[in-house]
Specification:
The structure is a single chain. The protein contains 16 helices and 23 strands. The chain is an alpha/beta fold. The protein folds into three domains: 88 residues, Udp-n-acetylmuramoylalanyl-d-glutamate--2,6- Diaminopimelate Ligase, Chain: A, domain 1 (3-Layer(aba) Sandwich); 222 residues, UDP-N-acetylmuramoyl-L-alanine:D-glutamate ligase (3-Layer(aba) Sandwich), CATH 3.40.1190; 154 residues, Protein-Tyrosine Phosphatase, Chain A (Alpha-Beta Complex). The strands form four sheets. An eleven-stranded mixed beta sheet has the order 8-7-6-9-5-10-11-12-13-14-15, with helices on both faces. It has a six-stranded mixed beta sheet with strand order 16-17-21-18-19-20, sandwiched between helices. Helix 4 packs across helix 11, helix 10 runs antiparallel to helix 11 and helix 15 packs across helix 16. The protein starts with a helix and ends with a helix.
Length: 479
Amino acid sequence: MKLYELLENNAETSLDDIEIVSVTDDTRKIIQGSIFFCIKGEHFDGHTMAEEAVKKGAVAVVCERDLGLGELQIITENSRTLYGKVCSAWFGHPEKKLKMIGVTGTNGKTTITSVIKHILTENGHKTGLIGTIQNEIGNEVIHTDNTTPFTFDFMELLDRMVKAECEYVVMEVSSFGLVQNRTGSAHFDIALFTNLTQDHLDYHKTMEDYYQAKKILFGICDKAFINIDDEYGKRLFDVTECEKVTFSVMEEADFYSDIVKLKPNGSCFRLCNGKTSHIIKTNMVGLFNVSNTIGAIAVCLEAGIAFENIIASVMNYGGVKGRCEVIPTGRDFTVICDYAHTPDALENVLQSINEYKTHRLVCLFGCGGNRDKDKRPKMALSASKYADKLIITSDNPRDEKPEEIIKEILGGLNGVKIPFDVATDRRNAIYHALQTAEKGDIIVLAGKGHEDYQILADGRHIHFDEREVVADGLKLLDD
């Protein structure tokens, strides 16, 4: 592709309209004829690699300051922003050929995007999905390492969806993805906000910065769907300038729930929209999933799906892996696996289960290493509000000592009267939970959810699937 065609008048250059054979911000991927983008990140500045890029064959270098490369350099105000636009152009702007639905917030993104995709697919619309657990092109499943893929990978994935004749793409849009402009030139037909609670403050530093990151999505969309049960949602509603729709489980809104009945195997509620109402039954447990379901329904109505068809699709949806997932045990106690790894998410899950428990509610959790330390004691305090017993263990310790992380978690239990056990090794902690389970107990394994690995020091990943661990632990009970 020609250089000027790629730049689309978004930058000036004295270079001839040369042929570009690849676009990258990674010197390891440079070949003869590449255009290299110098992007400054949190820990690394691509400008330091400009000369190496030229030696490897880059015929143009995009940078934010004079690097002494003469006419080879294309100076722009923001390399990251221009990279997003060029990646979009490289693939022929696939984002303009799809109906884009973006979901952002701390909790609920995976569930809402999965429900929306299910409803759209069931009603004849081939749909792509981009999210935390996996990416999907129709029925094809693709591994993912990031909630929102990096810029080039994102546009390449959208291009594949276009070629597979997808009509919609529904995606989780992370705060990282928004701040780092990973979505390039994408403009969203619909954006949905779930909630904002403490998470990722190791990156964003403050809740205000975190909110401002999420807010970016609502400046690049045509219509916003906002959960006004959340204080940040109410704030977002006040400043969002595009057309907007509200939903709630706590108060009247454009879409809101009434007469909610929560059960161990799902929920039933009346969904009100203006002067109309409908009875909705879902297999997903908890009031938070009532909220997620309402948001998904509202979006699908906007997409033109008939209400009766949406209701039928919601009723036959089985739920998301690792989101309040019941792990079969064949015993007289229940084990639930959930991804809850923030204080608010953990509290929501336990509160919902607490409403239908018949005996003890036991919560097993830890906190990730090299991440927001401030939330560790808050996790313990949130868990203690509804659990009858805690088992404190590790999560993804990374480069921190699990014992130190656990010590900081326990700081949240000062003055709180609740029984707790500590087992540093997560496998042993799960075995302990099974071995000490009583008839009627509900054991919640929180924090890992869909993940089938643990991250240890130096970035080492080891296989760790809690479904398998529970199965092994049950065998030990029989020995």
